[in-house]
Amino acid sequence: MIRVALPAHLRRLAQVNGEVHLQIPGPVTQRSVLDALEARYPVLRGTIRDHVTQQRRPFLRFFACEQDLSHEPPDTPLPDAVAVGAEPFLVIGAMAGG
Amino acid sequence: MSRVRVLVGTRKGAFVLTSDGKRARWDISGPHFAGWEIYHLKGSPADPDRLYASQSSGWFGQLIQRSNDGGKTWEPVGNQFAYNGVPGTHQWYDGTQHPWEFKRVWHLEPSLADPDTVYAGVEDAALFRSVDGGRTWQELSGLRGHPSGPSWQPGAGGMCLHTIVQDPTDPERIFIAISAAGVFRTDDGGKTWRPVNRGLRSEQIPDPTAEVGHCVHRIALHPSRPGVLFMQKHWDVMRSGDAGDSWQEVSGNLPTDFGFAIDVHAHEPDTIYVVPIKSDSEHFPPDGKLRVYRSRTGGNEWEPLTNGLPQRDCFVNVLRDAMAIDSLDSCGVYFGTTGGQVYVSADAGNRWEPIVRDLPAVLSVEVQTLP
User: Fold this and answer.
1) For an interface test with A, which of B12, B55, B60 has the most A Cβ atoms less than 10 Å from its Cβ?
2) Does the beta carbon of B60 lie under 8 angstroms from any beta carbon of chain A?
3) Closest CA to B355 of B329, B371, B328, B337
4) Is there a contact between B278 and B284 (Cβ–Cβ < 8 Å)?
5) Whether residue B48 has a cis bond before it, omega within 30° of 0
6) How far is A10 from chain B (nearest CA, A)?
């Protein structure tokens, strides 16, 4: 089971409380996690990554295990602690604006 | 008794203000979509309980929300705005060519006849249409494919298609306006477009009378006389008597002819309203006095409307989509400010009152007149 923590605005949009729990068959990567997340919550399509290019939106970051994974290739396996559900995969809104 | 429903988009959410026909007591609901920028929301003329809202954020991008019950509940619909084919390029601030990139929806214009058909004006400038209630969007790419497209360039607020006006007597005719390209008209339902900017003069561009390149801020028409258009340009208030084929300046005795909003009285096609703003670099009313100006002669002769509006120390702006007119017998005029006030006049502008004073900065105001 993969744990995903979303920023408050996206939790409200997806109508979820707390972490999202996903089952992912096969490799656990940024792409497979986001694919599963968007399949469960289609309203999130386009809000985390571009519809077509699948690029991460500029003001969002991906953290896990106290690491910034935002610039990792999307098919790089996520840390084992994320893959086994010990640590969450964090989608973070960058500090910006006022 | 008739009612009105005022739809207010702000920097941090949407608000719905309702009142009976007296427009003296108001119920306020909101914020809807708290924390998100709501550039615009508007109801369908064919089904007033069908509303569309443009919800966006620098973090999470664009969403479109739809309501089927007059704004009590909302559901997100389609948010994919893909330009047709290879997007191509337009002129960038430094004179180089820059790829067209979707940023946000500035304006939603529901069809006059079909609640499931709605147009979206977007940045970077393009026109999209949905015929399934907002679930899917298709670009009307004949507009962006106009030969002048690569020469369009952004104004200070971005290269946005911000105004969509449908001719109520001819479903094939639509006017749109782009900052900073100008007004375009289609007479074939959006397949082909031509610029209709003859008579505009803009000293800020290399050729002041160029066919395109003008920073048109807003256009408006009266449904009984759709060939007559009124325009608030970056500078200058303009009028066209031939559906945009030619324009004449009607700024007349305005204290400044810069501004954003313009609208037409519901029952008097020659009565128009603007809110003069000091200049393109000082986006507030002249002398700290918030004044709506009304012309009963289709322009040129203007009178200030001040009763109930602050006449000292007022330095707010009124943005292009932030004025609206209801169609009650005693015509109501509404506008919102960047200071978070929404004002109403229930007597065509003679006397004003704030409905609310302390919303987030107001981006848009629309009003629905309900049975």
Assistant:
1) B60
2) yes
3) B337
4) yes
5) no
6) 8
Residue B112 banded pLDDT, cuts 50, 70, 90: very high
Rounded to two decimals, the ipTM of the complex is: 0.93
Nearest-CA residue of chain B relative to A47? B60
Cβ within 8 Å, pair A48-B60:
yes
Quick check: B207 and B214 in contact, CB under 8 A?
no
Q: pLDDT tens-digit profile of B11-37?
A: 999 999 999 999 999 999 999 999 999
Q: Is the CB of residue B179 less than 8 Å from the CB of residue B159?
A: yes
* Whether B60 and A51 lie within 8 Å, measured CB to CB: no
Is residue A86 reached through a cis peptide bond, with omega within 30 degrees of 0 on the bond before it?
no
Q: Domain ranges in chain A?
A: 2-93
Domain ranges of chain B: 3-370
Give me the CATH topology for the region A2-93: Ubiquitin-like (UB roll) (3.10.20)
Average pLDDT over residues B239-252: 98
CATH topology of domain B3-370: Methylamine Dehydrogenase; Chain H (2.130.10)
pTM for the predicted model, two decimal places: 0.96
Chain A residues with CB-CB distance to B61 below 8 A: 46-47, 57
